[in-house]
Amino acid sequence: MATRLRATATAIAVFSYGAHASLRDPSVSANDRSGAPATDAVQRKISGPCAVVPPRAVQESALVGASPVNPLDLLVVGGGATGCGVALDAATRGLRVGLVEREDFSSGTSSRSTKLIHGGVRYLEKAIFNLDYGQLKLVFHALEERKQVIENAPHLCHSLPCMTPCFKWFEVAYYWTGLKLYDLVAGHHLLHLSRYYSAQESVELFPTLARKGKDRTLKGAVVYYDGQMDDSRLNVALACTAALAGAAVLNHAEVLSFLKDDVSKQIIGARIRDTLTGKEFDTYAKVIVNAAGPFCDSVRKMADKDAKPMICPSSGVHIVLPDYYSPQGMGLIVPKTKDGRVIFMLPWLGRTVAGTTDSNTTITMLPEPNEDEIEFILDAISDYLKIKVRRVDVLSAWSGIRPLAMDPRAKNTESISRDHIVFEGYPGLVTVTGGKWTTFRSMAEDAVDAAIKSGKLSPTNKCVTYNLRLIGGDGWDPAHFAVLAQRYVRMKKSNWGKVVPEAMDTATAKHLSRAYGTLADRVTAIAQNESLGRRLAHGYPYLEAEVAYCARNEYCESAVDFIARRSRLAFLDTDAAGRALPHVIQILASEHKWDRSRQKQELQNAKEFLGTFKSSQNAEFHDGKHK
């Protein structure tokens, strides 16, 4: 242990004498990272007062209109964080871009994350003790991107203090030293400085933290800062920003097959099916970018049936608990539990999210957590809390699939990369996979660079996404909610059909400002002018007006799209989402002109979806102690 401390201290000294600067990419100049004219022009285009996301029908027409003689520059397959990031990056370089997503934007891994934007404390530890300069560069890069994600979507992302409890004095010294190094590596991308708190201060900051446990006593805690996000709303913001920048983005559109040149066999387009209407059409592109996450092997096999698998799927399960499990402004992270895993509890959208697991899994559209995984999380957090941890408190539980990737070009295929991989495995098909949410922007930049090289494309400018504010973020201020509360009222219809006014309460105003940024005024105007100011579920700030707004402006095409990804009700409280469903479907039916058959089908689909979220109501209880 003493050797480890000396190694860490030595590393700090090395960084203090300038190693930090050597981690920078010398090919990237300060001018490339500043508000260049190209960035300013794009920002005005997507943030102007008259900017309106094109309707879905217009987007589909743009894809249908791409022909062999007038193809898209780029067609992206996959509407997760990386895919939408690629579409935004390419569109803002002046390229002609299309994107198709089989389900909805963020319907897969991107909506089922840990909700953290982080540099990777554990990777830093491995870098130091394994003397791995490559890992160190990954951490530096992730910390830089962490800061940019928060700055580019300030309404959807924020810094979060995370407490690491210490039960031995050695742990105090070890974690304090390691997290100071984390601060140092961040450099000017630092969010806030880490610091040590005594045992008494720690329980004051985190009241449910146990001061004494089995053969151990709390000695104090080290608090450091990482970022937190509303992942699916950030993903939807990426899709809408890409659309405003000129990309033709289409959710609920499935790639059936690739079109190939008869002579060269290069991919020149794709056969697409609109899953909402059943309509099939061909669209043509100079390059296809495969950003299908865990499903990228399936896309690769469409091009080459002999393509070797490169995805090693890993399951990560999270549970949501009531807000009293954690204080509003402080997370709890245990880097190493008794069985060597990481466990955390984080405040998120008024509730507490806890996790996670890391186990091999099979790839499926709707992964489900099992009771053993939920019991593991409950067991792990109970070791650190003074309150009883109960299975009946689980409001929602979900599983996400991490697309850990092996580079098919590597000689040693046993090595799974934690970094992202970009390669052209088949002429005309560029695949980007691996990585993590934090680095989606740079993943997209690398993928577009590879696509430009592959298709000999001619962008009008370099990448401008480094300092590009997403839709709703430009000009947003944390005090914006107060303006909403003062300016608007919620007009709602009573059970007897009478329209009655109600104040725009602080909780609702804060939610709307955080979810929609500067565009929250448009949502509140609908609530006020169209009498859609009623809450959808008791205890949650989601309004009827949001359903209408998302249907008109955020490509919300199904009930699941709304309860899971435009709002987060399915993730926060599965049962509350179920109760809100009929009303959500009623509003969507009015917006999209659904008949009764479609409404019935939407209800059935949504109930099946919610059945994969294991709340206490649909739990399969074992003989666990958390009943």
From TrEMBL:
Superkingdom of origin: Eukaryota
UniProt xrefs under Pfam families: DAO (PF01266), DAO_C (PF16901)
Record Gene3D superfamilies: Alpha-glycerophosphate oxidase, cap domain, D-Amino Acid Oxidase, subunit A, domain 2, FAD/NAD(P)-binding domain
GO molecular function, a single term: glycerol-3-phosphate dehydrogenase (quinone) activity
GO cellular component annotations of the record: mitochondrion
Similarity comment text for this entry: Belongs to the FAD-dependent glycerol-3-phosphate dehydrogenase family.
EC number: 1.1.5.3
Highest classification ranks of the organism: Eukaryota, Viridiplantae, Streptophyta, Embryophyta, Tracheophyta
Pathway: Polyol metabolism; glycerol degradation via glycerol kinase pathway; glycerone phosphate from sn-glycerol 3-phosphate (anaerobic route): step 1/1
Name of this chain's protein: Glycerol-3-phosphate dehydrogenase
Domain Alpha-glycerophosphate oxidase C-terminal: 463-598
Source organism per UniProt: Rhododendron griersonianum
UniProt keywords, alphabetically: FAD, Flavoprotein, Mitochondrion, Oxidoreductase, Transit peptide
Coiled coil: none
InterPro entries, per the entry: DAO_C, DAO_C_sf, FAD-dep_OxRdtase, FAD/NAD-bd_sf, G3P_DH_FAD-dep
Enzyme class (EC, first level): oxidoreductase
Compartments in which it is found: Mitochondrion
Cofactor section: FAD
Catalysed reactions listed for this entry: a quinone + sn-glycerol 3-phosphate = dihydroxyacetone phosphate + a quinol
PANTHER family the UniProt entry points to: GLYCEROL-3-PHOSPHATE DEHYDROGENASE, GLYCEROL-3-PHOSPHATE DEHYDROGENASE, MITOCHONDRIAL
Record domain FAD dependent oxidoreductase: where: 73-439
GO biological process, one term: glycerol-3-phosphate metabolic process
